[in-house]
Amino acid sequence: MTESGPPEGEREEGPERSLVSRVARSVVPGVVRRSYALKLALALFVVVLLIAGIGVVSYVQIQGIIEADAEDTLRSTATVQSDAVGEWIDGIESQTRGIATSDVYGTRDREAIRDHLRDSQALAGEDVVGAHYVDPESDEIVASTDPEYEGESVATTVPAWNDPIERVTADSGDGDPIASSDRAYERNGRLLMAFARPVRVGDGVLVVVADVRQGFEQLYRSETITTTRVLTADGREVTAPRQSRPAPLSDSSAFDGARDGKTAIHDRESDVFAFAPVDGTDWIVVAEAPKAQLYQAGETVGRNVAVLIVTSLAALAVVGLVLGRGTVLPLIRLRERTRALEDGEFDVDLRTDREDEIGRLFTSFAAMRDTLRTQIRETEAARERAERSSQKLARQNERLDQFASTVSHDLRNPLNVADGYRDLLESKLADAESEDVDLEELREYATRIDESHERMETIIDDVLALAREENTIDDTVSVDLESVAADAWANVDHEDSTVSVVGSRTFEADRERLLRVFENLFRNSIEHGSTSPPSHAQEDAVEHGSTSSIPNPEQNPVQQDGSSVSIEVGPAETGFYVADDGPGIPTDAVDDVFEYGATTAEDGTGFGLAIVESIVSAHDWTIAVDESYDDGAKFVVSDVGGE
Description:
Elements: H1 19-27, H2 30-33, H3 36-100, H4 110-123, E1 128-135, E2 140-144, H5 154-157, H6 162-170, E3 179-180, E4 185-187, E5 190-198, E6 205-211, H7 212-215, E7 227-231, H8 253-259, E8 264-267, E9 271-277, E10 284-290, H9 291-294, H10 296-342, H11 357-431, H12 439-468, E11 477-480, H13 481-490, E12 498-501, E13 506-509, H14 511-527, H15 536-543, E14 548-550, E15 566-571, E16 576-580, H16 608-618, E17 622-625, E18 634-638
Parallel strand pairs: 12-15
Antiparallel strand pairs: 1-2, 1-6, 3-5, 4-5, 5-6, 7-10, 8-9, 9-10, 11-13, 12-14, 15-16, 16-18, 17-18
Helix pairs in contact: 3-10, 10-11, 11-12, 13-14, 14-16
């Protein structure tokens, strides 16, 4: 006999009901909560709204990003062209100064001056097409690389020279006056510009003429959709001498900003303009691009987003219709039959011809009716298996602890053997005191053996501590980067490799563990050694005496056999780095270098860099491979602090 519960809708909610469930109950009407069909329709409607909303927001954001990027690109184009024009003007002015500083003008010898001008033009760049010496008092062209100009008046022959000549002759300052034409002028099918400067000796003025079209050639290349031109401060084009009216762009606020030395963007109905001032002049470079082409990517993205939204909505409508018919009706039938099961009618018909999830759901309910007792027995069996698994895990933990102790024991065996040999060495030293041997050297070897043993003991203790305890750092002291690097280098078998410390800094750290960081990084560099020469940074540091060098006391620090490696240690922005001139780390291996067992050396264990990363993390620092470093491998430890 089954016990009936409270009517549907009046059952008490369990304490595990979440806040989200309570909020949903207070917001969603009861008729929707009790109907899967209404829930499905409501969910599809919400998804439709989300897709449409996300599509619109994405389109607006993408459109804004594309337009901003396009304008930045146009602004960069104007700036690059402005820099190119400025460099061209600086080059012509520099050549003008060079030609004007000769003493030949003081001789007033027309022949000598003419020869100097011709020689100077031959040595000048291709842009310089003529050099002329003018007497500003008489307005006569005294000497010229072009015989047609000599003896002629500037005012009648080339009036475009008058303005730069008047400006440099009116400048009474002690500087280096030089003036150029405000705009280009045409002569013999060329666009020319005059640069005037007083000569160093004499009262004349040197006029150097340059081919503007050749100098501004890159402005007129049609490699992109961008058109570039140069305007004067009053809005007339520099390379259009016949233009009498200012360009309409000169009335824009962006043009005024460019005249004040700022780069600006001007948006017109069909075009976009970028203005950039040319340093040293009052010229302004204008980069122009049509909106239809400049923002073409945005329009394409917009169409794609619209197509995606429409396609998604259509597919969602089809899926909703099929899903509703295929799930709602079978679930209604299943609900009616499970109510019969709830009332104890275990002979209810749960057969179905469907083979999908709904069909398997019917089959599962049918199986549940027949296997309830079996499931209870399986639950008990599962609980017993869980208890056995817990006991097995405890035994595994115990075996891991035994493994750590065994590893410690196996590592200490060779230490004991070495201790025995050390005792024999000390005994031999005592017997050899009467012989002609270098006892101090031998004692030094014995001392080194003893120090190495102590160091290995410390490493073993730390490894065991890392295996058994939490990987944290409790006690720190103030350490010096150069000192720690030197001590670590002394503990490494570096053969003929060298290390250089470029600068130093102090910070708080566990000195013993920090030593192991440097030792492992040094060994990693040496084991993956290179035949390449030392890095440029290290050579510069040694040459200028700014590097603290830690030599090998038994080997020549200079690479001799081509197999050594040069290592460099120095402070970084928030920490320090260790770099070498080895072959570097393959791009596909950078992400795995700090994993246990990751190594490219045949005899490597793959634990060195993993231990480094563990110690660095224990200090709350970070370590990474500098992938932009091209001279070898470079490890940068950051967030160290200190000074």
